[in-house]
């Protein structure tokens, strides 16, 4: 396998939910390739951006159905892969940081134990080794006093710390691809910057591919390389992140215009007009 | 400032057990003004609002609303003057009350007549048609729920509105709608608003003056225009400004900075 093989290839991805009354289409024909880069998927709630991440990991909840012309990880077809192999990839090669640390960590297990459990699972370490590696990992995500934090329970840590703990846990398997679903939307701007720095370092040092799912356009523009703008399960536009402000599609423009900006005060914020024609046939 | 300020806070202190979470917070808000409080989580900005709204009686210091002293257990008529909108529209509406029941309750508590017309009017004011009146919160989107929460606060026709991160749980497109709505209502009713947010851009859009909080202390109070032009004097304000500018999108060329 050459280095040019994309980490993730997605062609014509569709995610559907069969409900008693109708079929809800969450993703309608999305295609993209991910290399060793920072790719962002932006859009409003319900635009299908989280479902795209979940489809790659096979985590779409029942009664969801995932269809694609191609869905591959480093050239390996994910659609035909057996469940054991797919499970082995999940967490080890591709992992996902969920939005809310409050709901994604086990509330009755100390955070250190949860991370070392991941170490024991992925690397078959003994308890003492796992503890040492966990402490090192906590330090890597810039948690001061890792020894003290190890024994804390999720309700005892702040939102920013919880988010860093989740990132630490997801990095245990040393994944090639990290899917981060709104990893910073619950955080303060100053903490947000720290969490993004950690991810930035991991991408540049370890050559990881990152898919950042977010609704925060300014953040994505400052942090990522490429941006896919999604609406109603479709890609409206794929842009260079630095050129996000010059997006041509009316939806991209609308999303930018409705943001308040400290340095460019406006009398009234623009309201987004959604055109049903964008969804297409 | 010759006119009586709508809100005057002097040396507000709050202790939770041994923790001293607000230290000598002082500020005043003129009638019809929008005042912003910014800072990170744990800086005490929500605690200020909870003390002002009567939700937290453990405070000491002097607080005056329209010249009247605020007490730790306010009487009923206080709540006709001061109302609050909370951050999380998913948590602040009773899940088993319809929109109608939720809006009727403050009217019943205060013995205000003609609830039918008032509820219709309150919903119309926040841009919801009467089809929403008998729905439950789980049948509403986040933006619609926040509109109901605003309608509930405004149905008593208060003169002061306290907003605790009213849009941080919403999408940017919905945020724009809610911020526009708040500004329209403020202009129409001449409301005095205190807006708590961690987003400096939102505060800058809505407010004329802002206080920056850190560690339970107001580190700086400034006009938004001054802040925009000269930056902050306090290092923490500068850090906050830098963080919010770092992620600001470059605006199109045809839109010159209004400085």
Protein model, in words:
- The complex is a heterodimer of chains A (281) and B (259).
- Chain A is of the alpha/beta class and 281 residues long.
- Chain A contains ten helices and eleven strands.
- Residues 251-259 of chain B have low confidence and may be disordered.
- Chain B has a domain at 7-92 and 159-246: Rossmann fold (3-Layer(aba) Sandwich), CATH 3.40.50.
- In chain B, helix 3 (99-109) packs across helix 4 and helix 5 (142-154) packs parallel to helix 6.
- In chain B, a hairpin with a 2-residue loop joins strand 4 (59-65) and strand 5 (68-69).
- Chain A binds chain B through residues 44-45, 158-159, 188-193, 215-219, 221-222, 244-246, 254-256, 258-266, 268-272, and chain B through 40-42, 142, 171-177, 179-180, 183, 198-202, 204-206, 224, 228, 239-241, 243-252, 255, 257-259.
Strand residues, percent of chain B: 15-25%
Instruction: Average the pLDDT over all residues of chain B and give the rounded result.
Output: 88
Alpha-carbon distance between the two ends of chain A: 38 Å
- Radius of gyration of chain A, in angstroms, nearest whole number: 19 Å
Alpha plus pi helix count of chain A = 10
Query: Total strand count of chain A, please?
Result: 11
